[in-house]
Amino acid sequence: MATIALALVCALFYIIFVLISRNGSEKSLSHEGFFQRVTHLLQSIGQQKGPQGSKILKRKEVEETFGPTTWQRQSYDAFQAAVCSTDPVAFPCVYATKGFKAKEHRYIFLDSEDMNNKKNIATLAAALKEYLTTPQSELGPNTSLVVLFPVINSQLSPQEYHQKYWDCLRALRKVDTKPWPSHIPTDTDTPLWKFCFNGEPVFSAAMTPSHEKRRSRYAPCFCIVFQPNFVFDILFATDLKKKAAISKVRGLLADYDEVPISPELKNYGDATGRESKQYFIMDENQSSPPCPYTSLDV
Fold it and tell me: How many CB atoms lie within 10 A of CB 260?
C-alpha cells in the first residue's frame, strides 16, 4: 500500500509539473531535475515513521520503506553484513546475529553524525523512549535498538569517534525527562555506573568505520546500539548460562579480531572494571581513554 501511495504522489507531482511547464513558468527545471526533487522528497516522507507514526522501524518496515539506492538502506545493509559475517568465523556477538535473524532489532536512521544537531537528538531521544517502553514480549530476548548513520568516506580516528559517541550519550541525558535512577552512581569512573535513560539502565555499544584491527567493532557506517537490561537478565539468568555465554563470545573474538581481547571487557561491578570503557572499545589494546565526562549531567 505504501508503494502505491508513493507512486500516486509521484504521478500527481508530474501532472503539476507538466501543467506548469506548459505555462512557461518552470522552464529552468528539466525532467531530470524534477524527478531528482521528487525522489528526494519521497525519501524524506516517512523517513522516521513506522506504523501509526512510530519513530522506530522493524526489519520488514526498513526493507519495504527504503530502496537499494537510499542511504538508509545502504547503512542497514552494511550493518547486516557486519553482524551476519562468518569470515573467518561467526560474528562474535552471536546474540546480535540471532536478534537480527529473528527480526527482534528495531532501527532508527539519523542523517548526520553531528551530535549538536538538536533535531536528530530529539528524534533519537523519542525513539529510545518509545523502544524502552515497548513491552518485552513484543521485542524478543535478543533485541537491540540500532541507530544508523550514513555510510560516508570518514577520515575520523577511533579517538574522534569516541568523543562523538560520548557527546551523543551526554546529549541524550540532557533531554531526558526522567531523573537518574538513585541506585546508579552518576560518576562515570566508578564500577557501578551505567548509562540510563527514561529512568532505566541501558547497555550501549558503538561500531565505527575507523576500527580496522578490532573487526568486531567495525561497520562501514557509524552505528550506536542500545539494549535494555532484560536482555542480560535472560542471557545471564544463572551463573552457568552467564559463564557459557561469555566463554562463547570470547572464543569467537579471539579468532575474529586481529588484536587480543580487550582488557576492558570485565564483569559489571568488578572493582577494576568500568562499564563506560566497555561501551566504546578502542581499535588497539592501548590504555583506553576514560569517558570525557565525569558525569553526563555536567
Answer: 11
